[in-house]
Design a protein that fits this description.
Helix content: over 70%
Shape: rod-shaped
Largest sheet: none
Strand content: under 5%
Oligomer: single chain
Number of helices: 2
Amino acid sequence: MIYWVVFAQAVDDALRLLDFLSRFMSLMTSPSRLTSKNKII
C-alpha cells in the first residue's frame, strides 16, 4: 500500500511539472517574447 502512495505522489508531481512547463512554453511562444525566444535558440 505504501508503494501506491509514493506512486500517486510521483504522478501528482509529474502533472504539476507538465502544467508548469506548458505555461512556460506558452509564455515563450507569445508574440511579446518572440524576439527573446529567437535569441535563445
